[in-house]
Amino acid sequence: MIKIGVIGALGKMGKEVVKAVINAPDMELVAAVDICSDGQDIGLIATGTKSGVLIETDLIKSLQNHKPDVVVDFTQPKNIFENVQEYMDLKIKSVIGTTGLTDEQIAQIKIMSEKNKTSCLIAPNFSTGAVLLMMFAKQAAKYFSNAEIIELHHNQKKDAPSGTAIKTAQLMAEANTNFTLGNSPETELIRGARGASAQANVHIHSVRMPGYIASQEVIFGAPGQILKISHDTMDRSCYMSGVLLAVRYVYNNNDFIYGLDNIMD
Predict the structure, then answer these.
(1) Is 95 helix (H, G, I), strand (E, B) or coil?
(2) 3-state secondary structure of 236
(3) What is the reported pTM?
(4) Which of 161, 234, 247, 265 would staple 204 via disulfide (CB 3.0–4.6 Å)?
(5) Given 138, 153, 167, 205, which residue is catalytic?
(6) Contact (Cβ atoms closer than 8 angstroms) between residue 97 and residue 72
C-alpha cells in the first residue's frame, strides 16, 4: 500500500484527492493537513464517512509522525515552494498540483529532487483531456504561423495565466519560435488588451468568472484557415485519474518530472 498525505486537504481539489485516495485499492490515506479544522476527521468532511485520519495544521509534525510515502499538494502559490523544500528535506516524494511556481523555482526543485534522489512531479493540469490538448497543440504548432491561447477559470483562482496555459505555450514554442508572423505593429489603447506574451510570442488571455471551473482554447491561424483546440472541465473529479497516475509514478521512481504528458503513454 502507498501511504499518502494530502496537503491542502480542505480545498476543493484537496477533498477530491482525499476521496480518490480512500477509494484507491493500492493506497492508504495516512495524513491530512490544512490551515483550519484541526482535529476533525477528513473522511467525514470529504466523503461523509469517518476515515480515522484527523486534520492537522502543523505540516512538519504531521509528516514526521505519519511518514507518508507520497504527499499530494494542492495548497497556495505563496506556500508551495517552501512546502516542497520541506518534502525534499524529509525525502518524501511529492505530487504538486499547486500552480504559481516560477521558472527559477521549478529549476531549483529539479536540482533538489536530483540531489536528494527524491521524486517530484509537478503538473499544471491533471486532467488527461487537458494534457492531450497540450500535446495536440504542440503537434499543431509545427504547421501554423500564428496562435493565441484563451484560458478561463473560476474567479477564486489566484494566479494568472494558468499553469496549463503557460505549459501549453512552452510546448508550442518547442515547435515554432514566433506565433505573431505577419502581425502589424500594435498599440494597446488599454494596457493588457492583447494579453500576456509568453514564449515564442504566444499571447495568453486570462478570464476569471464565476461558473467556470477550468477551460482552455488554443487558436491557430494560417492563410485561409483557423484551427481551434479546446477543453472544458465540468467537474473536478476529472483530475483524479491523473493525480493517481502521478502518485503511482513517483512512488516507483526517483526522478523529477514537469508535466503529466511525460508519463502518459
Answers:
(1) strand
(2) helix
(3) 0.82
(4) 161
(5) 153
(6) yes
- Does the annotation mark 231 as catalytic? no
- Rounded Cα–Cα distance for residues 116 and 67 (Å): 17
Q: Domain segments of the chain: what residues?
A: 2-122+237-263, 128-234
CATH for 2-122+237-263?
3.40.50.720
Residue type, 119: S
Q: Does domain 128-234 have CATH number 3.40.50.1370?
A: no
Residue type, position 157, single letter: K
Residues 95/71, Cβ–Cβ less than 8 Å:
yes
* 63 contact partners, CB below 8 Å, separation of at least 6: 5, 31, 71, 86, 87, 90, 92
Give the max Cα distance, the chain.
62
Q: What is the mean pLDDT of each run of 10 residues along the chain (265 residues)?
A: 98 96 98 95 95 97 97 94 96 94 94 96 93 95 97 94 94 95 91 95 97 96 97 93 97 95 87
Q: Is 78 one of the catalytic residues?
A: no
Task: Sort residue 186 into left (φ over 0), alpha (ψ -120 to 50) or beta.
Answer: beta
Instruction: Please give the angle made by the CA atoms of 244, 255 and 246, to the nearest 5 degrees.
Output: 10
Q: Which of 66, 138, 157, 167 is catalytic?
A: 157
- Strand bridging mode 2-7 / 70-73: parallel
DSSP 3-state of 77 = helix
| Angle (nearest 5°) at CA 159 between 232 and 29 | 75
Question: Is residue 216 within 8 Å of residue 149, measured between CB atoms?
Answer: yes
In one-letter notation, the amino acid at residue 251 is: Y
Alpha helix (H) ranges present in the chain? 12-23, 42-47, 59-66, 77-89, 103-116, 128-140, 163-173, 240-252
DSSP tag of 11: S
